[in-house]
Design goal:
By secondary structure, this protein is an alpha+beta fold. The chain is built from 13 helices and eleven strands. Strand 1 and strand 2 form a beta hairpin. Helix 6 packs antiparallel against helix 13 and helix 9 packs across helix 10. This is Transcriptional regulator.
């Protein structure tokens, strides 16, 4: 990646903050490759599907491969970069399954082939193997990191209503399907909790920050309380539900920094306090404790 532009965080949040992209990737990871198969599976227009497949191919998530020379027909095959997105989809599924009750479609069951059990992923440190809570990790901007460079680029996206459950990932989209929502959530995980903290770090208009804080409180991701300096200066803190979204953010950042390396260095750097090592994501099975691999996760219809 060239120096000075949108960094790995901004590029990644732009990709996963688009519900159509997530739905297309969901089916791709289940084996869908052809345009007509996505059209059959999704309520998506020709124009939207064409744009999304083109953008995902440009990002190196898909490779466009000709499968019929006479009529010049192509299929979209996941690259190694694309297949490596499975932890992001898995953590989104796990969070929605645990914290969100309303879905247009029933969420699938995830079975670990290694032990044969339905499971949930345990978020941990790759260096020491221990389970990790957001408060166990210290982090901040690296050489290519800044708030401006981490804001996702504006794209045309399908937004789900956070109150009507209009989508397979309704509340995930409420948290990261808006460029300011994603950045505000990141600021909260870096310790911001006052209105002016968010305003200074994001550089967004006050009306947008007020609206995002309101939505996050309505979703139960933030809780507000009187400020320590003045009671009428509200403070916003992540709830248990909000902290539980951390694996989604971290698997996405982990993926982005592996595949979109900036010339200056990483956008974000993290240390696991307990072992003192650079933090990298490890997902394990809560049933057998084994390290999860994408090829060992089976997607089955919900009960």
């Amino acid at each position: 990646m060239p120096a000075g532009g949108t960094n790995a965080v901004g590029l990644t949040l732009g990709l996963i903050g688009d519900e159509w992209n997530l739905l297309i990737l969901r089916y791709a990871l289940l084996g869908v490759r052809r345009y007509g198969e996505w059209r059959k599976a999704l309520p998506i227009s020709h124009a939207v599907l064409t744009r999304r497949l083109s953008a995902l191919t440009e990002m190196g998530v898909f490779e466009r491969v000709e499968y019929q020379a006479s009529a010049r027909r192509f299929e979209y095959v996941l690259t190694r970069r694309g297949r490596d997105l499975w932890p992001v989809l898995l953590t989104i599924w796990a969070w929605e399954s645990r914290w969100v009750t309303a879905h247009v479609e029933q969420l699938p069951r995830m079975v670990h082939r290694g032990c044969g059990q339905e499971f949930r992923p345990v978020f941990g440190c790759a260096a020491c193997g221990r389970a990790v809570d957001p408060r166990d990790v210290d982090g901040g901007f690296g050489p290519s990191g800044s708030w401006n460079r981490s804001v996702p680029e504006v794209t045309t996206r399908r937004r789900s209503s956070s109150t009507e459950g209009a989508g397979l990932f309704p509340e995930t989209m409420a948290l990261i399907g808006n460029r300011w929502s994603a950045t505000l959530l990141g600021a909260a995980f870096q310790g911001a909790h006052r209105f002016r903290d968010f305003e200074q770090r994001l550089g967004a208009p006050p009306t947008i920050i007020s609206d995002r804080l309101r939505v996050f409180c309505e979703l139960g991701v933030f809780a507000q309380s009187p400020g320590a300096e003045r009671a009428d200066w509200l403070s916003y803190h992540l709830t248990e539900k909000g902290r539980a979204f951390y694996p989604v953010i971290m698997t996405a950042i982990d993926w982005g920094q592996r595949w979109f390396r900036a010339a200056e260095g990483p956008a974000l750097v993290y240390t696991h306090r307990e072992c003192g090592q650079d933090f990298q994501v490890r997902l394990s099975c809560n049933q057998c404790s084994a390290l999860l691999r994408g090829t060992e996760v089976s997607v089955e219809p919900g009960a």
